[in-house]
Amino acid sequence: MNYNYNHNNSSTSPPSEDHHFDNDDEPRDPNASYHPIACSSCRCMHKKCDKKLPICSECLLRGRECIYNIPKKKGRIRGGKNKKKKPEQGLDSKTITSFQPSIPTTSTTTDTVISTAGKSTTCSPQIDLIRQRYAQRKDPYPVSNGDQDLELRKRLTSLIPTTLNNLLSENYSLYKQFLKRNTIDTYYNIISTGHPVVAKKVFEDFLFNDSQQQNTELMALVFSIQALVEQRFGRKERAVEDINISKQLLSSLFDKYDDFFVVCTFNYLSYYFAGEGDDSRARFYLNTVDHYFNDKALLDHEALSQEVKNLDKWKTVTKLSIDSQNFHSTDDDHFMCNRLSLIYRYATGRQMPDEYMTIARQQITSQNVISYLGLLDSVCSFLTLHNQTFSFTPEQRELSSITDAMVYHGSRMRILIEAGIRGHLIEVSANKIIDETMKPTFPMVPVALASVVAGACKVHLSIIRMIRVGKRVNGSDGIDYYEYVAKGLRALRILATRYGRVLKFCSIIMKEQEEVIEGKFTKSINSLEELASQTSVTTPPSHLQPILTNTLTSIPVHTSTTRFEELPSSYTTSSSSSSSSFSSPSPSFGDTHSTSQPPPLLFPSHQQQIIPNSAANAGNVSLNDPSVSELLAQICNSINMETANSQPFISNHVVSANCQLPASFVEMENHSQHFESNMQMSSTHGGVTYGTEVFMPSEELEQILDSFEHENVQYE
């Protein structure tokens, strides 16, 4: 397309199609600079353009991106004092000026902007348009609110001289190079977790070499990666823009399902939509990835390239993210089986062996919970070894540490709940999960861990509910659970700024957390006001002050449900069983005796570690992770307590554990020591141990360890 411009006294005018867009009849500001032709936005919208630099009035008013293309022929600008100046004065002859209200002006080469009108391929107009959008991209890292930045830019534009504007426009390319480098570093140091699907040199050549940008398959992958980077930093609008461009590019490559870059793009699109909570769309894109690997199912795992192995790991992570809200719900009986098998595949690249699957397929009960915990321990051992092997940067090592802790304690918490185990063990895991959220790198964790955090938050909310009704005392075990609720809310809010999935599935939890914190604050204010009003009242000596006691009637706690929101605590059981009778007053706070007796326990030697006799010695109980023997004893005690609590209270309020119990429980009571040894033997003779050992055939274990070493050498 040729343009004719006025030179000096020439009367030649632009073509007719530009006549509707150029607003040359209106007076010019003699102190402003103008471009020879209308901006591309006004031309597309059929609006008159005043061609003012760096942004025309129409684009400034509408908040649109203002792009000036460099004309092939140069002409004078009518009006203004700079008539004889070249329109590109102060700019490189191959630059364009791009302005977005919320970011600085961009510059790029016209070689990638000017459309290729002579091409006749089917998809070339769409691809060229997308490439043009890529070349004219705005700042992907806005540092302020868009409206605020727009107002600031209006003020600065009127103050900065034209020459300085041109200088900024020329040097913005340096800033753009920095943004590209930041994208590369974020992907390889954080997003990829040590498993990139494209070599770093290929990525760098594409971003820094314009000639490489003709690869449409790689361009679609780059935009999907850019979307994940923006999503991880919480720049949602920018991420949506990137993901839409990637989808548009894929529309012309949809039939190339066997192309590796295309399959990687499908996987990253699926992962992005899983983070947004759109599971149906995530499954749609992931089906193409599954089809790709089905064709390679007969190939030896070691024969696959390292990039294909990394894609397989990404597919596994995506599956862990889809439907992850089921983590803190016990409706899915096969959730833990599927979860452990996926974790094992991610860590080893193999299917879980039959020895593991035999245990994983069982429904979790109090009878097989030890075996299931042993399975979890072994799978997580492989995960830790894998993450230590492939963590090459400090960021990756810190994120791996958070991931290992959350995966283990989150899975253990879920297993114990399904088995009907209550109290101490679950609270230990919930506390450790929330503690991990206070680490500096937590905001960069993947979306799959959001459901783990939500599960821990539900445990703490259940404890708060018991504190409110007087069944527990906050701080009696040295832990402020209101503080843990606040930490949990902070963690969910951080994740909600990044992942739409959190707001979609955790909004009810966050609302209850806010109510708890607000209620605690209001209660504190009221307490201070009440204390201030009593300052004028003479306080009697301490030995004459009455002792406040809890006169609430003991109510048995039923633990048949396995949902977090109805979780009772083992402390609740102790307070119910050790409280006074209906006809007599309760003992004082310091009294360590009770008129009723607690239910007999299987292993009295561990009783104090599970159930304090009173609130006086409850403060000496700390939530430390138990040893193997303590774990066995606590689980057996919890089983006995749950059974005892399900029986009605008798007249003297003494519960017999042998009353209407199945024969197996009666035998456990009569032969407690024998039962404990049998439980320990069954966990070893059955091929499962709850410890650091890995129970699998030695040949397969050696193959897995050799593959770790081989893959690590490739990265080095």
TrEMBL record:
Keywords: Metal-binding, Nucleus, Transcription, Transcription regulation. This is Zn(2)-C6 fungal-type domain-containing protein. The lineage of its organism: Eukaryota, Discoba, Heterolobosea, Tetramitia, Eutetramitia. Residues 1-15, 95-111, 569-589 have a biased composition (Low complexity). One of its GO terms (molecular function) is zinc ion binding. It holds the Pfam family Zn_clus. InterPro entries: TF_fung, Zn2-C6_fun-type_DNA-bd_sf, Zn2Cys6_DnaBD. Residues 38-68 form the Zn(2)-C6 fungal-type domain. It is found in: Nucleus. Gene3D superfamilies: Zn(2)-C6 fungal-type DNA-binding domain (4.10.240.10). Residues 74-86 have a biased composition (Basic residues). GO terms for cellular component: nucleus. SMART domains: GAL4 (SM00066). Residues 1-29, 74-111, 565-605 are annotated as: Disordered. It comes from the Eukaryota. The keyword DNA damage does not apply. Its main location: nucleus. Coiled coil: none annotated.
